[in-house]
Every structure is written in structure tokens, then in C-alpha cells.
Amino acid sequence: MIHSLFLINSSGDIFLEKHWKSVVSRSVCDYFFEAQERATEAENVPPVIPTPHHYLLSVYRHKIFFVAVIQTEVPPLFVIEFLHRVVDTFQDYFGVTNVGDQLPTGQLSVVPWRRTGVKYTNNEAYFDVIEEIDAIIDKSGSTVTAEIQGVIDACVKLTGMPDLTLSFMNPRLLDDVSFHPCVRFKRWESERILSFIPPDGNFRLLSYHVSAQNLVAIPVYVKHSISFRDSSSLGRFEITVGPKQTMGKAIEGVTVASQMPRGVLNMSLTPSQGTHTFDPVTKMLSWDVGKINPQKLPSLKGTMSLQAGASKPDENPTINLQFKIQQLAISGLKVNRLDMYGEKYKPFKGIKYMTKAGRFQVRT
Amino acid sequence: MSAAPAYSEDKGGSAGPGEPEYGHDPASGGIFSSDYKRHDDLKEMLDTNKDSLKLEAMKRIVAMIARGKNASDLFPAVVKNVACKNIEVKKLVYVYLVRYAEEQQDLALLSISTFQRGLKDPNQLIRASALRVLSSIRVPIIVPIMMLAIKEAASDMSPYVRKTAAHAIPKLYSLDSDQKDQLIEVIEKLLADKTTLVAGSVVMAFEEVCPERIDLIHKNYRKLCNLLIDVEEWGQVVIISMLTRYARTQFLSPTQNESLLEENPEKAFYGSEEDEAKGAGSEEAATSTLPARKPYVMDPDHRLLLRNTKPLLQSRSAAVVMAVAQLYFHLAPKAEVGVIAKALVRLLRSHSEVQYVVLQNVATMSIKRRGMFEPYLKSFYIRSTDPTQIKILKLEVLTNLANETNIPTVLREFQTYIRSMDKDFVAATIQAIGRCATNIGRVRDTCLNGLVQLLSNRDELVVAESVVVIKKLLQMQPAQHGEIIKHLAKLTDNIQVPMARASILWLIGEYCEHVPRIAPDVLRKMAKSFTAEEDIVKLQIINLAAKLYLTNSKQTKLLTQYVLSLAKYDQNYDIRDRARFTRQLIVPSEQGGALSRHAKKLFLAPKPAPVLESSFKDRDHFQLGSLSHLLNAKATGYQELPDWPEEAPDPSVRNVEEEDLSLIETHVGLLGEYTEVPEWTKCSNREKRKEKEKPFYSDSEGESGPTESADSDPESESKSDSKSSSESGSGESSSESDDEDQDEDEEKGRGSESEQSEEEGLKRKTKRKKVAEGLEGSSSDNGSDSNTSSSESEMTSESEEEQGEPASWRRKTPPSGKRAPAAKEISLLDLEDFTPPNVQPVSPPTVVSSSLAADLEGLTLTDSSLVPSLLSPVSSVGRQELLHRVAGEGLAVDYAFSRQPFSGDSHMVSVHIYFSNNADSPVKGLHVGTPKLPAGISIQEFPEIESLAPGESATAVMGINFGDSTQAANFQLCTQNRQFYVSIQPPVGELMAPVFMSENEFKKEQGKLTGMNEITEKLTLPDTCQSDHVVVQKVTATANLGRVPCGTSSEYRFAGRTLTSGSLVLLTLDARPAGAAQLTVNSEKMVIGTMLVKDVIQALTQ
């Protein structure tokens, strides 16, 4: 399995190493650096790099490469999944205050994901239903593809060994699901009820997919007019963001980001609201819009200065959109009830809904 | 892991506020910033007596190791602390040792005795960690010690230690491969282990040490399949991967009948169901007529594997999902492989590394099984934010999925991609268009036109790539495309990319007869720029010159000679060689005349058009999901995926003698229940199972409902059937939408499949019967064995109560002969307790109002024996002593559980108390004193008995709410002048009251109470316990449950509710011939369930 693990930061320093079998010299990372150089961008470093004597499997998160050294055949996802779990653990560990609670203690218990003897003075269980819309909208504003990916993240702080059931008003919406190991699969199969003894603290109970066949409501639209002209070195740029199918909820936290063509030297733009930046080096335009006021739609317009003499770029930039809608699950998914068995006290229960843009792109 | 000490550094410091801040410099705040040079400082800290300082020093040292700094000179100072009492220090010393022991072997030996001691520690965690460190120290001299330790740990009573033993095996093997034979013995032993904790680890050891010993798996195959769902995620991956290989050696190919259709993959995909239906249909006919060719019947074990892995597609772990996907790809009949597509597509939402691996596998699969991913075409659309390597893989998949129907959409999508800023991606898109054009004749011209348009693209890379692709396309039908070639020829003025220039030149040369005017002119230009060209271009110039010389020597003779002369003096030897070679061939000379006569044939032979095919073609000869598949090269240690055997090996090798397919452990968690339908209930639950398997074969259950239910089930059953099926139908039918015409075929396929599965079930059952007959003796002690081990491993919290309780009952049982006449060993559950009818306790009238209860006080023992106990079965516990007459100074008190509803409070257990005064003086003012009760227990006292004359008896009824636990209710029994402390502890069977329900209700409720709510045990019924009557009597005597009618004669069902919470308790006993039986209890109250199983088994087997 994994022989050694190296952690490499963005400036290329190996700042941590761990060996499970005999020590592998850190010079093995040179192969990794070579590949990194070839890839030019961090995200394009191949996750699997063969070297004469080893295989390097890596994941890239938080600007850190986690490079595992392998010597023999192993399913690559096994290692990659493991590395991601390591990162998750680090994240929990360094990010959360009550560290002691986070470390696994339940390996001998019947319920390996939960330690025994949990005690709280305030017993609470919070569930966040978070849905992300992945969409590609084409030039004319019609939807190329759209689907909803949802998760239910939970923060459960309950004394003892509570046994919870969570039911939905409309479980049939869920097309494809994957569960935390605590969820009893058969109960779901037969009754569409989530029945589980929760881990202590934060965890992801469920991820789901709402079928692409269901029509996905697209809550925002982008009107755009981006034009380069051959004759002049000036281009015109104008985009407007507006609400579409929002179920009466406000759209907040809107940001627009777009990678402009290389030929764009600078942009001189005026937003009707929010702030915008354009980085002339990376050619990245970003506009922090904030909340959409349906009465006065936010817009960003102005000119682009293009490289003099060069012909107009043939590509139009893609617009990536981020937004949030509170108190709404765009699929219409609703939690029916949460019941607790096995313990006597009355827990405080909370459910929150949110819809966000996932990978939401507008082609221009 | 290694970062853990770093974090808690601050905590450690503040943990002992009294300690001096010794050696704590500001830089030690974090591992990443500080630099420790003062090792003396550390040595000093390690030598002190203060654990806090040692801990601090060790944290720093481990931090140094993690940063790759050399800390080996500290070895002597550190190794001394291996025996340190502080567990935190110890852990860190272990980390250090594992790192440096190999370098300092002699010193490391000093620590060995500590580990050997640790191996004997009563704490399983310490035993495990001692073994873990011992096996991680790579010092060859201790190999024998390690071997011994592993062997011992493999039979440790703690499954956790046995798991650690399994982990140690590959470590020892890598240190000394000569130990293989001995290690295999250990592996064999551990493979027989029945706990989920061990399963994954031992299979890992098996894979590393002896993957070729497939024979070791036979006996464990079914167990592994059944345990799989409860194994931790990492273990699941390893087991699934191994079982895939196993299945390839032991079962027949499920697609063998379909191989004829293989040539056309698309047709094969759709056609396969039909084909299967035929295959399965003919099967029945075949069995009677004995045809020449044996029809394919899936081995039930093969089916078992497919069935038990399927729910794991819902795992959150990408590795598990991939493992199941590859298993299905390699093992499932074609019609069933489709289920994996959805799960794989889901993984595309995951981290980009996961996407990368999944897409590689999807790319391979989509070549063989295009139809499977077609519904998900849009999920592979590319976003501008995808990393390039992901874009290119998605493009590969999109290209594989493109067919006559979807090509317009795919091409429109490609069109957007061509305008991307990511040029590598654009180039890949152009190639993809080329492939679509080759594969789908209908769009060839469209694609070609599109590519020609791209020739005027401003980006040279785009143009170049287009040229290369156009060249390949033109080769397919050159005659029609003279115009394009002319267009290309013009491009030579502008285009600089060598590959593109070379391609154009080759095209002109090859098809010079189509462009007779332009060709010599191009050559002229090229001759001019020859010296400045790249090597590949130069080679093509020579080529062009040669071809023109052969076809049009008049115009080009001089040019050719000029080019050849230039090439002769080129710096590159390839070019010089080529020039020499060409000259010899084309220019007739004195000796070489023979060749030059054939020069035209040599140069202008018709060349086959290149086939543009996926680089993922045929990659599936590697096991999917493997590293080797990803690299498309065999990785070290890769185990080939064997071909299916021609003839199935003997399936009986998997029969297990003490077959114990029902899991002994309480199942918890994800998917746990899939295995939970205990094997033995399968027959009676067949309808249900069928239902469950249906999604395998089809999605549109709704329509097929009528036919399905007509042939099989009783009405009520079919109702629930159709309900659930329509549900699953709507869930999935959406995904595989538009092949309605397939429905008919599907139905056929489904029908016959389920028949097959029925047959399977039957076979299984008979097999099991045989087994059960074969050995009665061993199964019972095996049962008790596993019993103890499972309770030890799993019941961390509950076990304490549980184990404590039975013991305390026993303590309280008085050694009186009146209850158990022939009792050798006194136990409350002795069955003799209730066999003599005359000792049966009171059975008061059914309706007990409070006033009636008062009346009952007058009843005496003798009266009660006359009352026939018709209404409610009687507790086996009978009367028990509450207060012995000696201790009670003449007052003797007994109690019994009457099993009557307690009038005051339905949550209370009603307890009858019998007082008898053996003293000389009357006992006055008999009442219950202020009870001190544990939480959850409450008592309804009996009304005070004013006086009890000497020699007289009295009865009272009191109610106790035990809160659904077997905790004792302790209270005081007070008389006027005395207080006696007494305690009543209920057997678990008395904590419930019967409920009556129909068979269907029972089944329904049982379906809800699975997973960890289900406890199953095997037992052997003694001869005395074979008749219906006895069994029912014994069960109802042990537990206050009501019998539920049951269709099958060998099955007994009982139901009840716990008194306090009203939770259902369902008990099923399946008795099979020869005394083998299986007991299942389903209840939300796990503790009650577990105890009830024990009690009932004890009652039945004694």
C-alpha cells in the first residue's frame, strides 16, 4: 500500500514526510517536480506519475500537494480517497476547537463512527440541506445541461446513543444517493427513511442527485454583450444579472468571474453596484455583485482595450457565476420530520435550506 | 497523524501549569517554523522524571522526523523511554522507534522485551499496539519473535488484536519472504475469522502474501460475501477486488451466450436482455431434454456476490464505488452492468483526482458498453473551469459515446470547445472531431467542412491540428477532395507548425495527380526554404520530390536533384540516409536498375487509411480500477484478471461445514441489512427478495405489475409489492428513458430471471439442510463460541449491564427445592421450573381493577393452584423469593410475574407478592417503604396490609415500571417495626406484553427492524423440543409474547411490545429438520433483543 507520504507546499518545499515502511528518500519527489513543471498549472499535474521504481499518487488541496509513494499495484482511488480523508482530518483537526473530540476513539465499539459516553448539556441536532445547481447556459440563454447536487450536512451534538430517523415529504426526488456509513441502507430501500445512529459532531449524512430529467429551475439569468471589433483596439463589454425562477426568495452573494482572452490588455468598467477587479496579468475579471435587487438590476459595462494591431480574439469568455439563496432547496426537497429514539431527553432540532450555484457557467 | 503531536504541543505545555517552562522556546510553537539544534537539551528532558518534559521532548523529536531532519543521534536517549508508564510518551517513542530501528538495530533490540511484555497485557489496545510496533521494526534478527507474536495474536480473543495480526503479516513477509509458508497458515486461520473487523485486513494480507492460493478462499467465499457490507470501507475495496479475481476463476462467463453479438457493441447491449431471456427460458426445457449444449445457469454463489456488492454502489467512498463498478463490469451479465453508470457519473462531482481516475475507467468501459453511459451524455460536457487533463478525458468519453443519433448534439458541443482559450484542449477537440468523422459516416462531410473552416483560424495550433486530422480523413476518399488539397497547398505559405507542413506535403505528394499544377510549384517553394525547415518537414520534402519525380519527371527532375543534393549534406543523418536511399531508388543507375523499375510501386502504393481509434481501446484486459489499467502498463505486483474458465470448477468446494451465514454480530450501519435477511428465511421471504432484485433487470416495474403479481403472491403481498415497485420504478425509469420498445424483452428477461433466483434459493436451502444434518454437535459449540467473542467485541456499553445481570439473578436464587425439583444447577431459566404443573403460580382473573387487586389479597397459594392458567402463558420464572423467612424474622415473601396488565399504569409490570407469616406473632402494617429507585424505574406500591396473623398468607399486587431495562427495582418492605431491603429483578422476557398481529403486519414490521435491530443466533433444538407445542410453550414461558400465525409449519413467530416504550419485539424461530434452528429477534431495543435471544436459546436448548 502506501509506502511514504510527502507534503509539498506551493513554493515546492517538502515540509512534512511520513514513512510507513522503510524510508524512501525525498529525492523521489524530483519526478513529481518535473511533472509539475510540465503541467504548468497545479491542477494539471497528473494524479498518478510512474517513476522507475515507484508510483507517485497525489492530491492537491489547500495549495498543498499530498504525494503518496507506492511500490506495487493498488487501486489508485484507494490511495486518492485515503489522501483526501487525511486532508479532511487535518482540516477538522486544525480547524475545530474541540480537537480531542475529533480524533477517532470508537474503533472498538459496535458503532465504530461514534464514541461511547458522549455527554452534552444542550442536546442539539442541526441539518443543513444544501443544493448546488450545476449548469451550462448557452449563448442564447437556453440551458445546455442543468442538474442539482445536494448534500445534507449535519451537526449533531446529542448525549448517549441516539437513534435518529429523518424522513422527507418527497423522497422520490432523490435520484441517486450516497450515504454516510451510519445510514441503514435497507430502511432507505424499503421506506425512503434515513435511519441512523449519528457520529458525534459534524458529518455529511447524505449526498444526492436530482435527476437531470426533472426540469431544473434556473434562478438567475445573465444578459451579456461582449464584442471585439477588428478595426479598433477597443471592445465593448456589458453584462447584466437578473433573477429568473427564485420562488420569491432573494438572491445573495452573487459574484461573477470571467477569464478574458489574452488579447485584452485592460478593462475600464463601471458597475451599477458592488466592486470589480481586473487582473491584467491573469486576465481574470471578477465582480462582486452582492444581492440582486429586482427593481434595479446590477450591471457592469464599459470598454476593453485590446492589443493594438492584433486581430480580434475568436473566443468569447465564459462567465462563471456564484450565488446563494437562503431558505430554499431549489429541487423542492423538504424534510418531513426528525425523530429520536433510544434516549429520553428532548433534543433541539434545526433544519436549514440553502441553494447555491455549483459549477454554473454561462457561455457567451 | 504525524501532525497530531504538533498541534497539541501548546496543550501539553499548559496541561501542567505547575511545571517550569523548561526548554520551551518561542520557536517551538509550531513544527514548521522551529529548528532544534540543541539536542542536548532534548536528551536532558528525556532523562528527567517528569512525564510532561519527556512528552515535550518527544513531540519535538517527532516533529523533527516529520520534517525530515535527522534525529538518529537521540536513539539511546529515546529508547530508554520505551517502558515509560505515560501512554502519550510511549506512543511517541513508538513512532520514533519505527522510524529509526532499522538504522540502529542493536540498540533497537533493547526495546524488544517491552513489546513482548506488551503482547501479554490485559488491555487489547496495548497488545495491539505492541504487535504493531514490533512488526514495524525492520530488524531481521527478530523475525522469529515476530512470527511467534503474530501466531499468538491471530488467536487472540480480541478481534482488534487479530486485525493487527493480519496487518503484521505483510510486514513480516516483506522483511523475510522465507516465512511465507508459516504466514499462509496464519492467513488461513484468520480467513476463517467471522468478524468484520478482521476480514478486510486478512484479505489484504492474502493479496500481498499468497494471491495465488485461491483455494484458501473457497470455504470463506460465502462468509466474505455476507460480511462485506459491514466491513470498513478500505477492507471492502480489497475484498471486492480479490473476489472479482476469484469469481473469474470459479464461475462461468455470464455473457457466453451473447458473445456472438459482440461484434456490434451497441446492438449487443440492447440485445442482451432478450438474449438472456431466451437463454433462461430455454433452460427449463433444456433440463428435461438434455441438449448437446449446456445452457448457462448462473452459479448461486456468483449471484450472491453480485447481489451483496450492489448496495455498495451507494457508498460515500469513491474507492468502494469504483471497486463495485469494476466487479460488475467484469462479472455481471450485460443486462445488469448498467447499474454502475449512475454511481460512476456521481463520482464526477468529486475531487478532480477522483474524476481523473473515474474518467479513465469510464473511457475504457464506454468503448465496450456505450449504451450504458449514453443517458448520461450531458454529464460529460466540459466546463471552461475543468483542468485540461479532465477536459481531455471527458472529450474521450464524449467521442466514445457519439453515435448516429446524438452526433448533432455532440458536434454542436464540440463547436463551443473549439473556441476555448485552452489550446491543448482545442487540439484534442479537433482530433475528437476527426474520430467522430471516421466512425460515423453520415457526418464525415460535415466534419470535414468544419475542419476546413478551421484552417482559416487565427491560431496556428488549431490550423495545424486541423491539417493533421484532415490529412487522415482525406486518405479515406481522396478523389473527391482535390479542392481541399489545393486549399491546403496554399497554406504552406503561412503555416509554420512542422507537423502540419509535413502533413500537407505528404498529402500533395500522395495525391499529386489530383493537383498536377500546384504540386511542382509547392516543391519549388520548399526547395527554396529546405535548409530552414524542421527535420520532419525535410523528410516530407524529399518524399514529395521523389513522388513528383516518378510522376512528373519533366517538370521536377532538376528540383528533385537539387533537394537531394541539399539533403545529402544535411546535419541530420536520417535526412542524409533518406536522400541516399531515395536517390538510389528513383534515379536509374547501372547496378540498381531492378529496384528503380519498381520505384513507383514502392512510393505510390495505395496506402490503407489510418484508423482513428481511442487510446482506451482494449484497455479492459487490465482489471478496471487498477493502477495498471490507469497506466496501461503492468504495475509491479499486478494480478492478472484470469479469463473465464470453459468448464465451471466444482462449486461444492465452497460448501462450508459449520456454515453460519447468518451473521453473529449485531449489524450496524450502512447497508448492513442486506445480509440481514438471514439465509434461512429466504425461502419464505422469496417474494420480498424477488422484489428487491427487480431493479436489477428493469426499471419500469409499474407496467409489469399485473403480470408479476398475478402469478405469485397472496393479495396483501402483491399490494405492497406494487407500491414499492412503482416507487423504485419512478426513481430509475427516468434515467433510462427512451427504450420503451425494450420493455417486452425486459419483462421476459425478468420473469425468467426471477424463476432462476427461486431455483437458486431452493438449491441453497437443500444444501444447507444437508449441512445441518451433517453435524449437529459442532454447530452448537461453535455457536456459543462466537457468542462470547461477539459480545466481547461489540457490546462495549451494553455488555457491562448485560453480563452483570444474569449473574446477579443467580446469586439471588435461593437454593430451595420447591421450585425446581430436580435442579442440579439452579438457574431461573431451568425449564424444570415450569414442567411440574402444581408449582404454577397464581393466575388471577384477567381484568384486574384496583379493587379487585385488593380482593386478591385474600387468595392463597392453594387456591391459586386450582385456577387453570388458560388466559396467559405463564412465566417460566415462577415464584421467587423476595425475603427469606430467616432474614425476615419469620416473614417470608415471594414474588411472581403474573403477566397481567397492571391496572393502574399500562407501562408497569404487575408483580404478585406472596406474604406468609411463619413467626409466632402477627406482622403488622406491611407496606412498601420509600423506594430509592434508579432513573427510569417507578413503583406502584400495594395497599398496606394491616395485619398478617401467624401461619397466615396474603397476596398483593404491585406494579413496577422497569423502564425497559433489566435493572433491579430495589425498595424497602416495612412492617411496623422492621425494614427489609429487597430487590426485584425482572427477566427480560417479562418486560413486554404480547401483541397480536397478522403475518403480514409482522413481516412489515420486521422489515423495518433490521440492521442493528436484528439479532440472529443459530441453535440446535434438543429432541425434547421438537414438537410445536413444546417450542411454543417454552418460548412463551420465557418471554411474554403473543404467537403470530405463520404459513410455514417450521416457522414460529411471536410478537410483543415492551411495556415502557411500547417498542415492538418480534421473535422468529425457524426450525429445520434435525434440530437445527435459527432464532431472530427484531427490536429497536438492542439490549433487550440480545438478552432475549440468550434467554430463549437457553430455554429451548436445555
UniProtKB/TrEMBL annotation, chain B:
Q: Where in the cell is it found?
A: Cytoplasmic vesicle, Clathrin-coated vesicle membrane; Golgi apparatus
- SMART domains reported in the protein's UniProt record: AP3B1_C
Identify the PANTHER family for this entry. ADAPTOR COMPLEX SUBUNIT BETA FAMILY MEMBER
Q: Pfam families from the entry?
A: Adaptin_N, AP3B1_C, AP3B1_C_2
Entry protein name: AP-3 complex subunit beta
Is Protein transport a UniProt keyword of this protein? yes
**Job of this protein:** Subunit of non-clathrin- and clathrin-associated adaptor protein complex 3 (AP-3) that plays a role in protein sorting in the late-Golgi/trans-Golgi network (TGN) and/or endosomes. The AP complexes mediate both the recruitment of clathrin to membranes and the recognition of sorting signals within the cytosolic tails of transmembrane cargo molecules. AP-3 appears to be involved in the sorting of a subset of transmembrane proteins targeted to lysosomes and lysosome-related organelles.
Query: Which biological process annotations from GO are given for this protein?
Result: anterograde synaptic vesicle transport; intracellular protein transport; synaptic vesicle endocytosis
User: Topology in the membrane?
Assistant: Peripheral membrane protein
Show the InterPro entries listed in the entry.
Answer: AP3_beta (IPR026740), AP3B1/2_C (IPR056314), AP3B_C (IPR029390), AP_beta (IPR026739), ARM-like (IPR011989), ARM-type_fold (IPR016024), Clathrin/coatomer_adapt-like_N (IPR002553)
Family to which this protein belongs: Belongs to the adaptor complexes large subunit family.
Report the domain of life of the source organism.
Eukaryota
Asked if the Swiss-Prot or TrEMBL record annotates the protein with the keyword Membrane, the reply is yes
Name the source organism: Otolemur garnettii (Small-eared galago)
Q: Which GO terms describe its cellular component?
A: AP-3 adaptor complex; axon cytoplasm; clathrin-coated vesicle membrane; Golgi apparatus; presynapse
Enumerate the residue ranges of region (Disordered).
Answer: 1-30, 271-295, 685-822
Q: Which residues form the AP-3 complex subunit beta C-terminal domain?
A: 821-967
The UniProt keyword set, sorted, is: Cytoplasmic vesicle, Golgi apparatus, Membrane, Phosphoprotein, Protein transport, Transport
Provide ranges: composition bias, Low complexity.
725-734, 776-794
- Compositional bias of kind Acidic residues: 735-746, 795-804
**Sequence ranges of Basic and acidic residues compositional bias:** 685-696
